[in-house]
Write a structure and sequence with these properties.
By secondary structure, the protein is of the alpha+beta class. The chain has helices spanning 16-25, 27-34, 133-156; strands at residues 3-12, 39-45, 53-58, 66-75, 80-88, 95-106, 112-122. Strands 1-7-6-5-4-3-2 form a seven-stranded antiparallel β-sheet. Helix 1 packs across helix 2 (27-34). The termini are far apart. The relative contact order is 0.24.
Length: 162
């Protein structure tokens, strides 16, 4: 198995604690509302902490049908979250798993900066044969689109996740 790591960050005008609550703690209820064209439902199996799994059923017409994610770690005090996609279409028969670490930091003007580290665990030992930059960039763009959709929803609904 080869591991390919990608790191990025994105800024938001939403304070870190509120954004963390929306993206991490309340995602199972918010994401189907915010992105109904992509996510039909998210089922939670566990208490939300390490070991909890989430089964995502994607909306008809979306390129994926389903996925299963597992919480690796959750640090509410420090606004850090790590999870792995362990089953389903996002793995594209090329990855054993995809692990993402999110760190929500204080940004300028009351907003936040989200640091994102994603490890793609390729099925092949070299990694390069299975994964290409276009696929990894597409995964990053889908994640970023989700962040921006949550941000827009929170701006339009100031009482949500306070």
């Amino acid at each position: 198995m080869g591991i390919i790591t990608r790191e990025s960050e994105t800024a938001s005008s939403i304070p870190p604690a509120r954004l963390f609550k929306a993206i991490v703690l309340e995602s199972h209820t918010l994401m189907p509302k915010i992105l109904p064209q992509a996510i039909k439902s998210i089922q939670v199996h566990g208490d939300g902490g390490a070991g909890t799994t989430f089964t995502t059923i994607f909306a008809p017409g979306f390129p994926y049908k389903n996925s299963k994610s597992r919480v690796e770690s959750l640090d509410v005090e420090n606004l850090e979250y790590k999870y792995s996609v362990v089953e389903g279409d996002p793995l594209n028969d090329k990855c054993e798993k995809i692990t993402t670490e999110l760190k929500f930091l204080q940004g300028t003007d009351g907003g936040s900066v989200i640091k994102i580290k994603t490890d793609f665990y390729s099925i092949s030992s070299s990694g390069a044969a299975d994964l290409n930059d276009e696929e990894m960039e597409e995964a990053r763009e889908k994640g970023l689109a989700g962040f921006k959709a949550v941000e827009a929803y929170l701006l339009a609904n100031p009482s949500v996740c306070n």
